[in-house]
Design brief:
Length: 176
């Protein structure tokens, strides 16, 4: 199946970038998180805050939306303007935003749950936000770069395995 070949090539290239240019990879991830924060804030502002007809709910989610869009813009612009000298600071700012966002999301989830709405996806988003924030806080600087390199090796191995599977050299399930 050709999808294994394409996935293998993408994994291998990504893994090599993680291995040999971890700071560039981290920078791309931070900027990607900034874009995600901005888009999430925009979505919250335009769609999510209108889910309930409650002024406190609206105000809480408006604050969350504006914070998300503001932090997203900062995470995108600061590293580009300051030539990458603020990756760790930007990562901490993103982590703080993710924690605040998760707390506000949990508040919104409890309000939505009281009105009988399905909140599973929103709860997963809050949990993911806390997890990503913890990673950004726990692994800054050189420790983070070391872990990115280790992950790069694993991603390269996964990419090679996909390519070998596509070529028929590596069977997923061997038959005796």
């Amino acid at each position: 199946m050709r999808s294994y070949l394409i996935a293998g090539i993408i994994f291998t290239i990504t893994g090599l970038i993680m291995l040999f240019a971890p700071q560039g990879f981290i920078g791309a991830v931070v900027i990607s998180l900034g874009v995600a924060a901005f888009v999430s804030g925009l979505y919250t502002f335009t769609r999510f805050r209108t889910e309930l007809d409650d002024p406190i709910f609206h105000r809480t989610l408006t604050v969350r939306a504006v914070l998300g869009m503001g932090i997203g813009v900062l995470a995108i612009v600061l590293p580009l303007v300051l030539a990458g000298t603020v990756w760790i600071i930007t990562a901490y700012i993103l982590a703080a935003h993710l924690i605040v966002s998760a707390v506000l999301e949990i508040y919104a989830v409890t309000r939505m749950k009281e009105s009988g709405m399905d909140t599973t996806g929103y709860l997963y988003e809050a949990i993911a936000s806390i997890g990503i924030a913890l990673i950004l806080i726990i692994f800054p600087g050189s420790t983070g770069i070391f872990l990115v390199r280790i992950a790069g090796v694993l991603v390269v191995l996964a990419g090679v395995a996909c390519i070998l599977h596509d070529r028929g050299i590596l069977q997923r399930f061997r038959r005796n």
